[in-house]
Design a protein that fits this description.
alpha/beta, FAD/NAD(P)-binding domain, five-stranded parallel β-sheet, 30% helix
Length: 457
């Protein structure tokens, strides 16, 4: 039986360690079964593609749903609008010509998976799921005419969804110093947005000769809460197995590890006592990149290399369109109704995924499940039904070591409080990495494979 405190109880008042661990495995397998199962035949209409440089048209009167952003939320939306409202005409607009997964990229950094594992085709996703793909950048919106303006022309819509992810926010570190911001971006990239910065970070790790390697963990709600700690473990593991005399310095702006604390803390202490230095409440106030020194309130820390992860914010396109606000979590996030995902002041424009203002985890599984939920809400509106908000689901697996592979995991949902705040429900973690067998079973890989299959196959 589950109670509101997040603990499980049997007739004696407690679950045993084995029962709790088995329950998490069952929950994980149930989730994998759900996200890989089919939703029935997809009998959608044929889509028109881009006609020319100036317009994207459709020949019939069916509802036109345009999704901007081909991340986990956008891919889930595009597919599932067609599932729930097969008569709709769905167009996915994405500026990149192929998908590279941020989840599981930590494993790629240290050679556990190859790039092909992370890389997938938007064209395949569109063809396999009966929607259209337009490789273009969103530029503007004409709300009066219901038109999205892109680098490849104009696209008419009845429903427009921005699933545009996040951008980095270097303001607190760099203020107006564009030179410093550019150096931080180029010389010490965060590598939490897919692209060339992951390649740069992988080369840094591969070529590291020794000394201090700094990783930062920002305040606020960043993408993805567990990933910096997992990355620290995998880099320390790489140093260990390659006889590199290096230490990973984790400079965490929070005063504690905010997710899977027991699992990560015990790994730092027992697996990487000589390889990881965890520094809570360590906010960088000044950079001297020439001397390779960072300064906090209390000390100076020298480093040989680093990956500086700043705060995050909603992408500039939402700012340009006046769809953002300041939140307790970050300086700029989408200004939407938390129950409908509609941009305030509009009745047919939505924001879904990591750009949202709610405190849900900015993670792949969360964004995917949220995309499915919003797709259902849009389909309900198309069919004249009352839409109902559903909680997204956060499922998170983190690798701690490679030889042997060890994992910890988390499952949670969310609930709104009476005052409109957010709380967690159905929390369940398995942080017993010594005995849980998640690593031996390679559950993280199975999860990723099932998600890629769902989005692209």
């Amino acid at each position: 039986m589950y109670n509101n405190s997040g603990t499980y109880r049997n007739s004696n008042g407690k679950w045993s360690v084995m029962e709790r661990r088995d329950l998490l495995k069952v929950a994980s397998l149930a989730l994998l079964s759900t996200i890989t199962s089919g939703y029935g035949a997809n009998n959608g209409v044929t889509q028109d593609q881009v006609n020319d440089k100036n317009t994207v048209n459709t020949k019939n009167k069916n509802p036109k749903v345009v999704v901007v952003g081909g991340g986990w939320a956008g891919l889930a939306l595009a597919k599932h609008v067609k599932v729930f409202a097969p008569e709709s005409e769905v167009v996915l607009v994405e500026k990149r010509d192929h998908f590279v997964s941020c989840p599981m990229s930590n494993e790629w950094l240290v050679g556990l998976v190859d790039l092909e594992f992370l890389t997938h085709s938007y064209i395949d996703a569109a063809n396999n799921n009966n929607y259209s793909f337009v490789n273009a950048t969103a530029i503007d919106v004409d709300r009066s005419k219901n038109i999205l303006i892109t680098s490849e022309g104009e696209i008419a819509y009845d429903h427009l969804i921005f699933a545009v992810g996040i951008e980095y926010d270097y303001y607190r570190w760099a203020k107006e110093d564009k030179g410093l911001e550019q150096r931080l971006r180029n010389e010490y990239p965060a590598a939490f947005i897919p692209g060339s910065e992951h390649i740069t970070l992988k080369e840094k790790i591969k070529n590291f000769k020794g000394g201090n390697f700094i990783l930062t963990v920002p305040k606020g709600n960043y993408r993805c809460l567990a990933a910096p700690y997992e990355r620290a473990c995998l880099i320390a593991d790489y140093f260990k197995h390659n006889d590199i005399d290096g230490k990973v310095i984790i400079m965490d702006e929070s005063n504690h590890i905010r997710i899977k604390d027991k699992g990560f803390s015990s790994a730092f202490e027992e697996l990487y006592k000589d390889r990881i230095v965890y520094m809570p409440s360590a906010e960088i106030l000044e950079f001297d990149l020439d001397k390779k020194i960072v300064k906090t309130d209390f000390e100076e820390i020298a480093f040989e290399d680093a990956s500086f992860y700043p705060n995050v914010k909603a992408p500039f396109i939402l700012e340009k369109l006046h769809m953002t606000k300041k939140t307790p979590f970050n300086r700029v996030e989408a200004d939407i109704d938390q129950y409908t995902y509609k941009v305030k002041g509009t009745d047919n424009i939505y924001v879904c995924g990591d750009a949202r203002p709610m405190g849900f985890s900015k993670s792949g599984n969360t964004a995917f499940s949220e995309g499915v939920n919003v797709a259902q809400m849009i389909a309900d509106e198309i069919h004249g039904k009352k839409s109902v908000w559903k909680s997204p689901v956060t499922t998170c697996f983190s690798l701690l070591s490679t030889k042997p592979e060890r994992e910890i995991s988390l499952f949670t949902e969310y609930v709104y409080t009476e005052k409109g705040g957010m709380d967690f429900k159905n929390n369940l973690t398995d942080e017993a990495w010594k005995t849980n067998g998640l690593g031996e079973a390679k559950v993280a890989y199975s999860w990723a494979e099932s998600m890629y299959k769902n989005m692209f196959a």
